[in-house]
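#lab-general

N.A. 3:47 PM
ok so I finally got the sequence cleaned up, no stray characters, all 670 residues accounted for. can someone with queue access submit it? mine expired

B.Y. 3:52 PM
send it over

N.A. 3:53 PM
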Amino acid sequence: MGLLALGTALEWPDAKKKASQVREWGIEQLLANWRRARGKERDALLWGDEVEYLVVALDDAAKKSRLSLAQADILKSLARDEALWKSGSGEGNKHAGHDGEEPPHFHPEFGRFMLEATPGEPWGIGFKDLLKVESNMKWRREVAKAHMAPNEVPITLTTFPRLGTKDDYIQPYYPPSGPALRSQFVPDEIANPHIRFPTLAANIRSRRGRKVELNVPVFHDTNTPKPFKDPTVNYDLHNWPEDDDVRNGAAKDDHVYMDAMAFGMGSCCLQITFQAKNMTEGRKLYDQLSPLGPILLALTAATPIYKGFLVDTDVRWNQIGNAVDDRTREELGEAPLENDRWRIPKSRYASNSTYLSQDPRLRKEYFDPDLVVDEDIKKRLMDGGMDELLATHFAHLFIRDPLVIFSEDLEELDLNKSDHFENLQSTNWQHMRFKPPPPDKDDIGWRVEFRSMEIQITDFENAAFSIFIVLVTRAILSFDLNFYIPIQRTTENMETAHARDAVNDRKFWFRKDPFASRVPRSSQQSTNGSTFSSGTSSAVNTPPPSPPLGPVETEFDLMTIDDIVNGCADGSFPGLIPLVESYLNSVNVDVETRCFLASYLDLIRKRANGTLWTGARWMREFVAKHPSYKQDSVVSEEITYDLVKAVEEMTIKEGKNGSVGWELLRGRKV
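B.Y. 4:20 PM
back already:
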């Protein structure tokens, strides 16, 4: 999360009146920045990872674990230590093996129980940098822990299993509700107190006209009631008008019900940002990585518990989408369009809906037929010189309203800033994000953010998935790979990834031939019939034009995750890991480095073929085998405490010698 602006935040009735101004000014800032940066070239790819932690306080005497709301104090302590480090007078952050490295950076997140950590400087594409990622992640965890209370630990679980239960799951304790969230499960104090966060939550609720609704199907075990009626829901509250939501059917049978932004934005994830050498390469990476989003979501599945119950999904994605869904009933299609402009198919936190690259292989059949675009904004961008594909992308993002507006920012338009543009850009949380260079930083280029992955329990896993996706980008650019499928199929894949044990039990749409030749010139048409420019290919040899195109449906098929990652047994699809290994074979990599990278690829390979469990499966098995579990889907305080202790142990021992988590990391108990 970037710097947090200060100012006088407008409540929704006033913000709504200024929404058009913010959109218009944001587009003018985008155009000005695009003109400055469209020819920007960087010498080499840089990348960075973002790891997010839950801060958990352990009470070993009472066998209780609670979320610690100590974010502010921890960040202050970390900032002091970093300042001492940079001045040369501090010893606190020093760690063997990190001499000469910049200290890691720590940032606030939505929850006061969360921390975000990034490396002190971006990683380069050199293989030696890849070998530092895991040790740097371990260093970050150690540094964070050193600035916490003795009983506090930073753990990398996606969600805290008992967030929103009726017990004292936070420290210090605050009773539920408050004017911003108006939740019957969590207090306003659970959120970062910076004015952006309560305003964001309150304005989502106000714009929507009711509280957000998260209904996650419960996992039906042997003794789970049928129908399951969430026993934590209070139907007799009358503190806020929105308390009527549950009386009007907001809480569904056989689902775990949640009612606040904290249940989504209080989730941790693993995100990777790539800096491309130029805009063309960035657009290509955005497109080619997009179909991989659901695949990596399923591979990293780690969210089987919500609000003290096992649920029948394995990942966080849709829950966050529902937690920030500001669409009105009209936009959702629940009421006739009278006051709003469009029906909008997706939440503002959702899978991608656009492709960006001026790639001749991009067929019109791949585009989303249900894409909603502000045509006036699209025209303004194209009149300003932007090509249709990029203009369509931003005109789609800008169908949304800005949610947090500071009155001080409306006094004068500054085309050397990007605050109004980022107001909309940063609150469109899609699984890929295309990021123009900041106008005030010449050393930053065009970037692409890969956002779908779940945080993993250990630093080894987080490093493995980070390095894997980096190597995939190198293979994409080196071999000019083509992973295009229709956007609707990627949207469908994102839903499939939510299924319990989807990595083993479900199939995903994926392109059969990643080496497909470029299309004939006669077929290089954009959505309005204009000819695409050919762009810049990173392949050494561009293949000759292919024969006339066949039906688009013949280009992709349903595949297992094992097929996609390791290759089809019949050779019809080579597999992502074999493609990465072919790339490594084509470059000069020393034996030691290759062996190091092989350990990471082996984790991905075995996760895909079922030899190793996902984090979600490990947690399900842990709960199922716990002596106090009653086969009723309830994850009690005792189970949660033991789970957190096991996770803490796993971050240290990493499943070695038969220790906890070997099923997740080793595949055998040795």
